[in-house]
Specification:
globular, 2 domains, Dihydrodipicolinate Reductase, domain 2, alpha/beta, Rossmann fold, 6-stranded parallel sheet, 9-stranded mixed sheet, 9 helices
């Protein structure tokens, strides 16, 4: 069994990750507040609490490091893990920019360790069904793609998400990355160009509060990702092809079952209700299997680099008002 150490044990770890550990073990943790760390360890029966991130990465009790710290800490934490020969699973976005992710890839390759990004939605049943239906040709060639992610940031306990010294950005960096990765995954293609319109408001400060990111894909499709931190929760995936449309309302949620629906000629041609509730467990188990050489992990560090380049292009497009190509 792979023994995970969690770096950055905050709200996400408490709400999403700890319930998901089934075929793997959380052997240790570190968080910036040592008092909260000790309380978390008691609550979740985690045997080791480390005083520093380096102590966790160096510990012989840890096989793989799960980086769940704020965005700006991902680079030093990934480098620490690689330095100590530990496999690394890192939350999205991988870094503050693509140059940081390139450093991560160099370090993990040099250390010969498995490196993945925690794009848990690739393990959603809904996304995998959409991918299968597209690959089977059920809608013909994809032409248009849309994904939307909305939530109310004022209700979020993550206090650092408006701080540009810790966060890659507003909802583009926080949740648009889920959307664009989902579109890439279901269509099995990359993003080639980006054009962004975004706005700030009084509460978001230096980062954006809502945005539209238009994209061109390598398969010829065009698409848009729309995001806001000022709306009721929604996570839509919609793909329009030559002969049909696949629609999944709240397709990225893990809270309740969702419907994946195929339309042809304005009529329902196929319908499947699925639950994404096990997506985090499937992701954690798949990464552990990759570390043990028993399988492949769906969201590699290279995938994370492409997504980070898309984010860089999206922010550059917003700030310059020009369309940007993605390397």
């Amino acid at each position: 069994m792979i023994r995970y150490g969690i770096l950055g044990f905050g709200h996400h770890a408490r709400k999403r990750l700890m319930p998901a550990f089934a075929g793997a073990q959380v052997a240790g943790m570190w968080r910036r507040d040592p008092t909260k760390a000790r309380a978390d360890a008691r609550e979740f029966h985690i045997p080791h609490v480390f005083d520093t991130a380096e102590e966790l990465c160096a510990s012989p009790e840890i096989d793989a490091v799960f980086v769940v710290s704020p965005d700006a800490l991902h680079l030093p934490h990934v480098l620490l893990a690689a330095q100590h020969g530990k496999a690394v699973l890192c939350e999205k976005p991988l870094g503050m920019n693509a140059a940081e992710v390139e450093q991560m890839l160099f370090a993990t390759r040099a250390a010969g360790v498995v490196f993945g990004v925690a794009q848990n939605m690739r393990y959603n049943q809904s996304a995998q069904i959409i991918r299968e239906w597209i690959a089977e040709g059920r809608i013909g060639q994809p032409l248009l793609a849309h994904s939307q992610f909305c939530y109310d940031a004022e209700k979020s306990p993550r206090e650092w998400i408006y701080d540009p010294s810790l966060a890659t950005g507003g909802p583009i960096g926080d949740v648009a990355i889920h959307c664009l990765d989902a579109l890439r995954f279901v269509m099995a293609t990359d993003i080639t160009e980006v054009s962004t319109l975004a706005r700030k408001d009084a509460l978001s400060g230096a980062v954006e509060s809502h945005a539209v990111v238009n994209m061109g894909f390598g398969n010829g499709a065009m698409g848009a990702v729309t995001v806001t931190t000022r709306g009721s929760y929604r996570s839509l995936i919609e793909i329009t092809g030559e002969t049909g449309v696949i629609l999944c309302e709240n397709g990225m949620t893990v809270e309740h079952p969702v419907d994946v629906v195929l339309y042809r000629q304005d009529k329902v041609a196929a319908h499947q209700r699925v639950s994404n509730g096990d997506a985090y467990t499937r992701m954690i188990d798949a990464f552990a299997a990759a570390v043990e050489g028993r399988g492949e992990y769906l969201a590699t560090g290279e995938d994370g680099l492409h997504n980070q380049r898309v984010l860089d292009a999206a922010y550059k497009s917003w700030h310059t008002g020009t369309k940007q190509s993605v390397e």
